[in-house]
Write a structure and sequence with these properties.
By secondary structure, the protein is mainly α. The chain has 9 helices and no strands.
């Protein structure tokens, strides 16, 4: 049971934040440094990620003796995850258009994928809320349904991957001290 619960939790968190997506072990181009304006933009985005990820500090509680309580805890977590995704999208929008070539298209792709992810998450949450759970078998079915819906996400690595597709932003993410603090990675 905990394995299935962990799969939903892991997939949900991966949809929001991919720790490997923001930081890397080596700068993409060791001979160059990020443009200060791009670096400032990336810092704003990672600050938004930090605000959203704070909502996920408490994972759902699993109570093997009470499947309804476990389902309700997972529904609550999915609600917090949805709110965290909204914070992330808001952080990207608040940061504005990044000062890099094709900046608007990069932001549009990232926020579009976030919107799609939020839709799938809302669908998952609704199905989980409506699931008949009277025993462990019912809970397993509800979790399996949630896994199937979450598996349809456009890009489970999150919007940072979309942003890093731009070489200038990729360089800025690798040099951002803010992103390193948020993700706990070195660059």
């Amino acid at each position: 049971m905990k394995r299935m619960h962990s799969a939903v939790l892991a997939m949900s968190v991966a949809a929001l934040l991919s720790g490997a997506a923001c930081g890397s072990d080596a700068p993409p181009d060791p001979g160059r440094h990020a443009d200060p304006a791009a670096l400032a933009w990336v810092d704003k985005v990672c600050t938004g990620v930090a605000a959203g990820s704070a909502k996920l500090a408490q994972p759902p509680a699993v109570d093997d003796a009470d499947p309804v309580k476990t389902r309700d805890a997972m529904v609550g977590f999915l609600g917090r995850l949805g709110s965290a995704l909204e914070d992330m999208a808001g952080g990207i929008r608040t940061a504005g258009v990044p000062p890099v070539p094709d900046g608007q298209s990069v932001v549009d792709k990232a926020t579009g994928n976030l919107t799609e992810t939020q839709g799938k998450l809302a669908e998952t949450k609704t199905r989980m809320e409506q699931a008949t759970v009277t025993d462990q078998a019912g809970l397993r079915r509800a979790i399996s349904d949630a896994d199937a819906t979450m598996g349809k996400l456009a890009d489970p690595e999150g919007p940072i991957k979309d942003l890093k597709a731009n070489p200038e932003l990729n360089l800025a993410f690798s040099e951002s001290a803010t992103c390193k603090r948020v993700y706990g990675t070195g660059s």
